[in-house]
Every structure is written in structure tokens, then in C-alpha cells.
Write a structure and sequence with these properties.
Elements (H helix, E strand, L loop, with lengths): L1 H12 L3 E3 L5 E3 L1 H12 L5 H8 L3 H13 L18 E9 L3 H9 L4 E6 L6 E7 L2 H12 L5 E8 L14
Antiparallel strand pairs: 1-2, 3-5, 3-6, 4-5
Helix pairs in contact: 2-3, 3-4
């Protein structure tokens, strides 16, 4: 019986992911199941997740911490920006001369910028901005984004109404 407990414990504590050749973690089926459980309810107790995925509470806690440490996932409270005082959101397309990554890094450092992607197509970068009001948005775009060396042009898409905001795409 003692050897079964050791075997079980070592199986629980095995690496839940390994890095692929491009440096991104490759997740096993159990880690994917844990992520799916947390996407359904980010406050679900580790004991309940463990029961659903076949691990102990301690093993789930360890895997969740590893997934957080690796940057695979975040556990956050998602709000409706309007209800917490942010009345203006916009997606800003940015065209860059030179190094796209340095501009993306500068945008990432701005507290109002919630989402940054480097893209192929009409824009080099798309950045989602959440602001208190139109004056705040104008300040961010005009005085901070357009002032970055290497920014050639911007185009703003102001959100009129938020119809859907979800992070429930699962792990497919």
C-alpha cells in the first residue's frame, strides 16, 4: 500500500506541461481539464476540481500554481467597465515604422491599454484601451500613443456598446 501511495503521489506531482520547441508550454489533458473547470467558475474549490479531474486537492493546487507561474492563465475578476467608472473603450490600430515590438512593449506598459496584439494586415498593432471618458481617451491616443517614436499613424474604433465579453472559449 505504501508503494501505491508513492506512485500515486509522484503521478500527481509529475510535470503538467513541458515546453514545446517554440518555448510555449504543451499542456496535458489533466491541465487542460483544470483550466476548463476554472473558466467555468474561477472560484471553484480545488477539492471540487480535483474530484472532476481525478487528482487530489494538493495536486490541483500545485498544477494551478504552475500554470499561473508559466503565464498559461490568469485568475481575475472580469468586470463590465461601465459599472466601475470607465465609460469609454476603443480599439486602436497602430501603424509603425521600424521595430514593431518596441512599440508593442511601450503600449503594454500603459495602464489604460488592456490588450495588445501584433498583427498582419492593415495595422501592425491593435491595442484595446479602457478610459474614464472621451478626454482621457484623447489624451492617451494623442499625447502618449502618437508621441511614441516609430508610430506612423493610428486609427481609433470607439466602442458604442459592449454586447459580449467572455473568456469561455474552453481548451478545445
Amino acid at each position: 500500500m505504501h508503494s501505491e501511495g508513492v506512485a500515486s503521489r509522484s503521478a500527481d506531482q509529475r510535470d503538467s506541461s513541458r515546453e514545446s520547441r517554440n518555448g510555449t508550454p504543451q499542456l496535458d489533458a489533466v491541465s487542460l481539464a483544470i483550466i476548463q473547470q476554472l473558466q467555468e467558475d474561477g472560484r471553484r474549490p480545488y477539492a471540487a476540481i480535483g474530484k472532476a479531474v481525478g487528482l487530489s486537492e494538493a495536486a490541483v493546487r500545485q498544477r494551478v500554481q504552475k500554470l499561473l507561474d508559466q503565464g498559461v492563465m490568469q485568475i481575475v475578476a472580469v468586470t463590465d467597465p461601465l459599472t466601475v467608472g470607465f465609460r469609454r473603450q476603443a480599439m486602436v490600430g497602430v501603424n509603425v515604422e521600424g521595430d514593431v515590438e518596441s512599440i508593442a512593449d511601450a503600449l503594454t506598459a500603459m495602464s489604460e491599454v488592456e490588450y495588445v496584439v501584433m498583427t498582419a494586415g492593415s495595422f501592425d498593432i491593435l491595442a484595446e484601451i479602457v478610459c474614464e471618458d472621451d478626454d482621457h481617451l484623447l489624451d492617451v491616443i494623442n499625447k502618449r500613443i502618437r508621441a511614441l517614436p516609430g508610430v506612423r499613424s493610428t486609427e481609433s474604433f470607439v466602442y458604442l456598446k459592449l454586447k459580449k465579453q467572455t473568456y469561455m472559449w474552453g481548451t478545445r
